[in-house]
Amino acid sequence: MDLNGKHIVLGLTGGVACYKAAYLCRLLVKEGAQVQVVMTEAAAQFITPVTMQALSNRPVYVSQWDAREPNNMAHINLSREADAILVAPCSADFMAKLLHGRADDLLSLMCLARPLERVPLLLAPAMNREMWAHPATRRNVAQLRADGAQVLGVGEGDQACGEIGDGRMLEPEELLEDLLAYFQPKVLAGRRVLISAGPTFEAIDPVRGITNLSSGKMGFALARAARDAGAQVTLVAGPVHLTGPRGVQRIDVLTALEMDSACRALADQADVFIATAAVADWRPAIARAQKIKKQGDGQVPGLAFVENPDILAAIAASERARSGALYCVGFAAESQDVEAQAKAKRLRKGVPLLVGNIGPATFGKDDNALVLIDGEGTLEMPRNSKQALARMLVGEIAKRLPTLAAV
Ligand code: CTP
């Protein structure tokens, strides 16, 4: 649970998106957070404190005159124990109020009273598209950012008012993702990371082909972890059924040749290349234009293959990689003897870091176990979720990069 031990103040202001805050509260609790809900009176018009108390398992605070606190200073007590204050939904009016440092209700009072250097303030705006686009709101967002608040993005699409556009509050899962990202150390700030992920598909004819069981989950988890660590991330994905992390540039490809040309072009602007893709080693020598028909006489079609380019080995041999400007990381999907195979593969591919795993034990799963091999030795990462492993791996990669000034 990624928020274990974290104390989150969840602030609700007036807006129809309050209904999503109920589910967000549940997600935060499920992630291990202690959630203290604070609502404005306007928020209580949209959803009751009873619902939020039941979901957070704590009494909800609405008024600054609440006598439950022995010292009658809820704004001080609640803000001092918080690891973060997340206001979701955050109305246009509440942003305007924060901007001026006004403090005429408990939530705004608490935001103003929070220790600036220790308690981050995250705002999830929710409003009609005209309100979001209004110059006053644009100004307020810019100034709140300059004052140190994290103003999260907004969703676009159908709005409760019937109009269509930007300004809708992000979905609860997206807000949870943003909050988790906020807590990650920014060890890849200023770096550009290129990741290949998933299988490739090599056509035999218009209806058949060869592929493999790679789901792309490890590569997508790495893309998210690298993004959360502050990197600018590009993900070249083979055919997978996964939604790309927000803020990550995604390029979809089908074949090894397409993946090869996309990765080679992008590697020129990357500082790190992580090859998690399970690239097909061979493709049919001829992709037939018409479906191969069964003859009914027991004869099977003969298929000839040609080798696909080795994307990682070629990029690792490039001038930029050899000069140290591009750091290459390979993966080895083995069926046995991972460490020995991975050691040999690291030398064969010419990469500084190679990550071994057992292919059949991890393809399609949400967890994995890794062994990292570099010139210094071996580091085992025991079985864990792919997301947790991805965060650890990103930390290990960051440690091995030349300092930014030297790049
Ligand atoms: N790789 C690549 N291009 C290929 C084949 C592999 O970029 N044509 C990359 C993979 O993304 C991975 C690493 O090379 O990072 C090792 O892939 P793997 O399939 O384990 O190894 P192979 O090179 O295919 O060797 P073998 O099949 O002998 O295990």
Throw out a few tags for this protein.
single chain; 407 residues; alpha/beta; Rossmann fold; 5-stranded parallel β-sheet; 19 strands; 24% strand; binds cytidine-5'-triphosphate
Summarize the structure.
With 407 residues, the chain is an alpha/beta fold. It contains 16 helices and 19 strands. It has two domains: 7-183, Rossmann fold (3-Layer(aba) Sandwich), CATH 3.40.50; 192-291 and 302-405, CoaB-like (Rossmann fold, 3-Layer(aba) Sandwich), CATH 3.40.50.
Strands side by side in the biggest sheet: 12-11-8-13-16-17-18-19
Question: Sheet bearing the most strands, described?
Answer: 8 strands, mixed
Mean pLDDT equals 95
What name goes with the CATH superfamily of the largest domain?
Answer: CoaB-like
Structural class of the helices, strands and pairings?
alpha/beta
Shape-level CATH architecture of the largest domain: 3-Layer(aba) Sandwich
The distinct ligands, each listed once, are:
cytidine-5'-triphosphate
